[in-house]
Amino acid sequence: MKRIVQGVATAAAAAAVLVLGQAPADAVNTYTIQPNSPKPAVCNNSGTVPAGTWIQNKICGYFIGTAMAGSSFDVSSTASDDYHWGRDHGDVNLCGWIPPAALSSSPTGTASDSCSTATQDAMSHRRSFGYDFNGAPHVVDGGTAITVDPANPSCGAYYNYYSASDFSSGSLRDYAGVPSSTVAYRFTTNGGTAMVVDDSTLGWVFMNLGCVTDWRSVAFNNDND
Predict the structure, then answer these.
(1) How far is C-alpha 180 from the geometric centre of its chain's CA atoms?
(2) Alpha carbon distances (Å) from 45 to 39, 82, 176
(3) pLDDT at position 13, please?
(4) 189 contacts 196 by C-beta, under 8 angstroms
(5) Containing H/E element for 187?
(6) Backbone φ, ψ for residue 145 (5° rounding)
(7) What is residue 16's predicted lDDT score, i.e. its pLDDT?
(8) If you average pLDDT over residues 47-61, what whole number do you get?
(9) Distance between CA atoms of 147 and 216, rounded to whole angstroms?
(10) Which residues neighbour 96 within 8 Å (Cβ) at sequence distance 6 or greater?
(11) Among residues 93, 83, 86, 99, which one has the least CA distance to residue 40?
(12) Comparing C-alpha atoms, which of 221, 164, 154, 166 is closest to residue 194?
């Protein structure tokens, strides 16, 4: 063991420099979400997300929002397949998983880690954010066709809905465009005002639940996973 040869004043000054020169122990790196990010190939997807990248409840999980291009994302942890867990600071301010290759090549700064493992575990279960799913857990992969009314001015499609990581509230925002008359329904958001659908042109989006004109053959399922 080396002897301490510096005086108290010198040691205190060195400690001060260390504190000022380093980020807090719980700080994480912040990156910028890129446009046209690739869909996760590890989950058997192809193509890109022009608006940014998906936010999912777990790796290869449900779509729960869009991290919009240009927004900041705090990376709390990174999985072996390069999925990132953290918080997006766009209109959603939401914790979640984003697919690989959606971030800027270098960090833009640091931030306090605000997405806990408890939040990660809670949102890994689908009933934490929605209900009336279009199938049982781990059985249906994708949506089920329903009919909506795109001619209705209040029936646009939106990239985001949830307002917090407890999924107790939200509002439609980040306009995506006019949906097709047939979309693939996935689930209804907590609160019962919006639904997640897959549009053939726009991809995964949120819509007003009241836009449905024909549920067709959807069989709702409320089992948790």
Answers:
(1) 24
(2) 6, 15, 20
(3) 41
(4) yes
(5) strand 182-189
(6) -60, 130
(7) 38
(8) 98
(9) 7
(10) 55, 56, 57, 64, 65, 67, 85, 86, 88, 123, 165
(11) 99
(12) 154
